[in-house]
Write a structure and sequence with these properties.
The chain is mainly alpha-helical. The protein has 1 helix and 2 strands; from the N terminus they run E-E-H.
Length: 119
C-alpha cells in the first residue's frame, strides 16, 4: 500500500483511491474503475439477547440504588437507627381480645346523582 497526498488538501490517500476522501478532488493518476482486494463479510451476532441485557441493566440499577441509599443513609443518620414499624398492628397479650378475634374494616362509597326532569 503506497500512500500519496491530495494536491488540494494534503490528505493522505490510498493507492486504490480515485478521489480524495476529505475534499473529493480527483486524483491525477486515477484509473477507473478502482480495484480493491475482496473483503470477507463478517456477520455480527450478539452474545446475549436484548431481554437478558435489559434484565441485567435493571438489576444493576436496582443494586446501585440500594447501595447508594445505604451509603447516604449511613452518612446522614447512621448513629441513631430507627426501628421499622410493622404494617400490621402488634397485638398485646392484655388487650382483652380472644385468639379468634378478627379485625374487620369496611369502606363505604356514596355517589349522589341528580336527575332533572323536563317539564
Amino acid at each position: 500500500m503506497t500512500l500519496t497526498t491530495c494536491t488540494a488538501c494534503d490528505f493522505s490517500l490510498d493507492k486504490a483511491d480515485n478521489f480524495c476522501r476529505r475534499c473529493g478532488a480527483p486524483v491525477a493518476q486515477a484509473n477507473l474503475p478502482a480495484r480493491r482486494e475482496p473483503a470477507s463479510v463478517t456477520l455480527w451476532k450478539p452474545q446475549a439477547s436484548p431481554v437478558v441485557k435489559g434484565a441485567a441493566v435493571m438489576a444493576a440499577g436496582t443494586i446501585g440504588q440500594f447501595v447508594m441509599r445505604r451509603a447516604i443513609g449511613s452518612l446522614i443518620g447512621g448513629a441513631g437507627k430507627k426501628r421499622r414499624r410493622s404494617v400490621f398492628p402488634v397485638r398485646r397479650k392484655d388487650d382483652g381480645l380472644m385468639d379468634e378475634a378478627q379485625i374487620i374494616t369496611e369502606t363505604v362509597m356514596l355517589r349522589r346523582v341528580r336527575i332533572r326532569r323536563q317539564a
